[in-house]
Design goal:
Elements (H helix, E strand, L loop, with lengths): L6 H29 L3 H25 L1 H4 L5 H24 L3 H20 L10 E3 L5 H11 L3 H14 L5 E3 L8 H21 L5 H24 L5
Helix pairs in contact: 1-2, 1-4, 2-4, 4-5, 4-6, 5-7, 8-9
Length: 237
Amino acid sequence: MSGSTTPAQRITAFAVHLFTASGAVAAFLALAAAMARDFASMFAWLAAALFIDGVDGTLARAAQVKKHAGWIDGDVLDFVVDFLTYVFVPVVGLWQSGIMGPDGTIILCPLVVGASALYFADRRMKTRDNWFRGFPALWNIAALYLLAFSPPPLVCAAIVLALTALMFAPVYFAHPLRVESLRALTLAMTIVWSASAVLLIAEGFDHSPVGKIGLVVTAVYFIGLSVRRSFAGGAAP
């Protein structure tokens, strides 16, 4: 630790670590809601965790946490929380929903968790210009779409299996906050997606056509970005 660190800087930096760790608290509350089959509450807590994950990096850089509270590895902390909120809890939600049918659930849920653990440990996960290599294990987002649109069990299982395979495929997905290509439009679509998801959660999956339309429009946009980068423009290693 640097000798120039003041108590105020140390406290501020540690507070950022606490803020990141609060995502694990949100994950626990989301898990409790999933086990109770209260999926609106589950997604509300996952949304809170997503917000924390979206801003804690900026706070960490501003507070210089590696310099002033370096005894805690913020990267490891972030990965632990991300695995809970992006993978483990959403997959429990899919399990509890039974949306893939009993056979699909008992096979695919463990497969998704194990494959996602490997993906999280892959050092090639991100390109130099902040795209994700492979489907970035956004099972919180996938679960939201599946529960919102409720496809038949076989279709749902096929989608989950395809996304699992795409984690290790040579395709690229945009980071919505760090992408450089079409940045302004991508940020605008991210805001539209966020508003649509909040509306869907607040009004209920069966009572929010506007929210569903927003999810569809933004999905088409981000899938288009992925196709454009993966098959038209090439990708940086």
